[in-house]
Amino acid sequence: MRYLVKISYNGAGFNGFQYQMEGRTVQGEIEKILQRMHKAFVRIQPAGRTDSGVHAIEQYFHFDSELSIPVSRWQHALNSAMPDDIAIHEVTSISPDYHIRHHSKGKAYRYRIYQGSVRDPFEKGLKVHYTYDLDETKMREAMQHFVGTHDFTSFTSAKSPIENKVRHIYRFDLIRTENGYDFLIIGSGFLYNMVRILVAYVLEVGQGRWDGARTPEVIAAKDRTMVPKTAPPEGLYLERVFLNDEEREAALEKLKRTC
Amino acid sequence: MRYLVKISYNGAGFNGFQYQMEGRTVQGEIEKILQRMHKAFVRIQPAGRTDSGVHAIEQYFHFDSELSIPVSRWQHALNSAMPDDIAIHEVTSISPDYHIRHHSKGKAYRYRIYQGSVRDPFEKGLKVHYTYDLDETKMREAMQHFVGTHDFTSFTSAKSPIENKVRHIYRFDLIRTENGYDFLIIGSGFLYNMVRILVAYVLEVGQGRWDGARTPEVIAAKDRTMVPKTAPPEGLYLERVFLNDEEREAALEKLKRTC
């Protein structure tokens, strides 16, 4: 049986999603629990990996199991064994040829910053403190240049081994919060560090250190050195993984009505 | 010169306020920074101590210094040296015979719980997960019995060395939040563990395990064994320290208008 599991986790206590020999990881914690239940190693396959400190409001993984646990019991069985920074929201049985990385149809990421002259100890690890004044209009204008299909070579880690750097961005929204801004981006897929580099770039524009009207030029350059910064990991949340086109279109439709 | 400092801290990373030989404490972190600045040990005097895991939205301490830093520069000087789970909100100069523990006129504490069948990883260390259904009316009724002047022997740690256990409670309010409840209590002073024991008691009432109408009996018994539980520290916030009667009365007046 193949099971698909919907989870969330607070990234503050993890060295990222992917298993490592040293350090606590989301994959490591989950596989340890599955190994205990199965008395054998069980590999999990995530929708995507998140870096050290990065959070997930919604993430998926799947795994194969021959245990005779009814599907309705899996959520509770897993939750009761999980540490308090991982939560299991749903477990469903899926076709044994389903593979989340190949079958999912895009993702939404959120990046959260807060402002004010003094750091807020309760935002530690959850939002990034940004003290410079930001020009909302300039940021929104720059952000619209990324919507559509573009080669994002200028906005990914130069170390990225992936050859095709063309991705489609459906939306890139700026949302005012009680103490700052959230950046919400929905795309077909994202390159390594892409959201954190895009946010760092938009913040430079908002701060007035870079002219947002030159964004098409930066995209066209396909040169990572034009965008030297990467925003810190603790502001980043994997917010949704779209299992199919319908889920993604429904989310986009809802945003059209509210934003 | 004596300086009064208003701070907040996230208790999750501390073994409480008070200095200990082993383990990270709020006092230890602040005194380490003051020692570095003064090249000599500087003792700080807090409005009150908080236990391991307990937070402060507003806490005060004072210290004496002969450094020739203008009072307007102290906030920035301290903040830039603080770790990211302590924030300095204000530094004022006060009379050298002012002592916050003797001169302050009461405190407000908040206790935060959230509900729902699944734990929320983002509430870790910030709110306590409480899965039982709660009867709001029963809780509010029980809470009103504590308002006024009472001997709180039944609601403090049996180990407390303080002889006079009479305290005055001005208000004890239940506030609905987006995912649970906040308990807000304002009093002349609080005994060791008192807020956490009161909240544990009210939750037992709300869950239907104890009849809240018997509260006057429990108070009159002056017997800690009648209230066996203490709510966990991570839900507790020192919310305000009232420097004088006027501050406290203004806060009470404001609550009267909104609650």
UniProtKB/TrEMBL annotation, chains A, B:
The keyword Cell membrane does not apply. Pfam families: PseudoU_synth_1. Residues 9-100, 142-241 form the Pseudouridine synthase I TruA alpha/beta domain. Its EC number is 5.4.99.12. Substrate binds at residue 109. PANTHER family: PSEUDOURIDYLATE SYNTHASE, TRNA PSEUDOURIDINE SYNTHASE-LIKE 1. Belongs to the tRNA pseudouridine synthase TruA family. This is tRNA pseudouridine synthase A. It comes from Salinicoccus hispanicus.
